[in-house]
Structures are given as structure tokens and as C-alpha cells.
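Figure caption, in words: inputs first, then the predicted bound structure.
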Amino acid sequence: MIETVTELSRLRAIVAGWKREGLRVGFVPTMGNLHAGHYSLVTLARRHADRVVSSVFVNPTQFGPNEDFTRYPRTPEADTTGLEQAGCDVLWLPTVESMYPFGVELAANVHVPGVSALLEGAHRPGHFDGVCTVVTRLFNQVQPDMAAFGRKDYQQLAVIRQMVADLAFPIEIVGGEIVREGDGLAMSSRNQYLTAETRPQAATIRRVLLGMRDASLAGTPRAKVEADGVAQLQAAGFHVDYAVVRLPDLGEPGEGEAGARVALVAAKLGSTRLIDNIEF
Ligand code: PAF
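Bound structure (pantoate present):
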């Protein structure tokens, strides 16, 4: 049976008990409205740990003023059932008051320079400060040995890895594979904002990413790959924030430089902003 915990003292007692028994603790932080992508992270955490804690907390500090904080879908009953079925031992449910005891305005912030400023950071100023601030707090609360983050949020994973290395958190960070719908659309809580008309178009992102990968591997210059990606997305009705090919650390590849790449897209269909990526 999963135990739902709302008091930090109870969470600490459970985790301390596990650690006394020599058990390894895994952690999957989420904002709820869980889907197969989240549950695959719980399965992944179970493979790396003996016990798994998952948190559900819609974090106000990572949403911009015109973003969807208030309408972000909240489905607590379904989340609890799904987490239990996925093999989660404890569901940690902090409140805004317990997460930010001095209030959001006076909260100590965690800022990871460099990688936070690129791509998502440029389009969503302050987003990664909010993510790092809440993940730091969650790490301090849960004190896991490992934590799982989805690779769909490629840049978030990169930012968290840098934060963990820089601040010497004794936590192994593991990236989980992207889980997709049948037509290739990456699973996301925001997919449910799509309408009957926009939902079929949303899968274009996956096709464009596959095309960007194939063109890059065939030696097409990066500027053309990116321009073609933007044009194809625009033709399908997207407002494009970026469609780029980067090094695995999100730096810009030099001309003719060989090696691994990641193509990343962020684009809006109506008011629904979607992100996805492909590593090659
Ligand atoms: O990826 C998410 O759902 C959130 O950014 C996270 C890591 C739970 C922090 O609020």
C-alpha cells in the first residue's frame, strides 16, 4: 500500500527508518496529473533503489506570470492510484506554505548559470530558477540516494545535473526515456489542452525532429536543418520558439565538428506549448 504523507516529520521518519535498514531510496518529483511517462520513471527508480518516494507539487515559482499555473490540471485521486500501481511506496504532498515557509517572495533561490539561460530559459525567464529552487527543497526533504527525471525535459535534466554536481548533492541523477503516444507525440500533462483539431497536428513535432536528425546525419548544414525544421512546423500551424541542433551539453556545435547531437523543438499550437527532442 502506498502511504500519502503531508507532514515533513513523517516523511523524514519513514526515510530515516529505510536508511537504518540499509535500503536505497529513489525519488521521482512530479507536478501531478500523472501519465505513463511519469509511471515509467517510478519503474526506473525501482530498478535503481529499494524504496521509491514520489512527490506531487505544482510549483508556483517555475511558472511565468502569463503561464498556466492556476489551470494546470490537478488529479490527486488518479495520481495516487497510478503511483501505487507503478510501485511507489510514499507519495509526498507538500503545500505551498510548507515548501516556502517564508513565502514565495522571500524564498531563497537556487540559480544555475549558463545552461539555465539557453533555449527554454530564454523563452521562459526564471523558469529554471523555480525548478532548481523547488528541486533543492525536495531533495532536502526526501534525502534520496537517486532521483529520476524524464528526458523529454532535456534541458531540465541538464540543469539538474549541473546543480547536483555544483552543490555536491549526494544523489545519483538518472534520465528516463521519453514515452510517446501511438502517433509519436511525447506524453505530457499539457497534451490535454489540445483540441480535436490541434491534437493530430501535434505529432508533427516528432516527424520534424526525425527529419532534423536524418538531415543532420546526412551532412546537411546545421543552419539549413534548423531553418527547414522551423518552416515545416510553421506550415503545420505552429508558432515556433526554437528548432535547433545542439551538442549534448546544449552548446552550439562548431562547423564540421563530429559527435553526438540533440535536436530540440519548442512550439505552440494555439495556446498549448509543446517541447520534444531527439538524441543522436
Ligand atoms: O518536471 C517537472 O514536472 C517539474 O519541473 C519538477 C521537476 C517536478 C519540479 O517542479
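The radius of gyration is 19 Å.
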